[in-house]
Specification:
There is one protein chain. By secondary structure, this protein is of the alpha+beta class. It has a three-stranded antiparallel sheet with strand order 1-3-2. Strand 2 and strand 3 form a beta hairpin. The protein is globular.
Length: 85
Amino acid sequence: MKQEATFFEGKEPVLIYIAKRLRNALRLESVLTAAGLDYGVEVDHYRGGIIFSTTRAGAFFYVLPESVSAAHEIMRRNGYKPHVL
């Protein structure tokens, strides 16, 4: 279930995915919600491009540390490649 920022206060959320397109962000929200997983999403900037590097906006998805494994599995089953540091 999508959570507000207050849900993560005092905790260290873990980045699991950066959606570069709105369509992908909306689909991932549906997948995580259907799975009953608590997650947060916010718009932030990332660097993209190889030759002409630019700053772009994307939807950054976060979960609590204890939910990372479950989130990665759900994402893989639905065709997403999780963000891993």
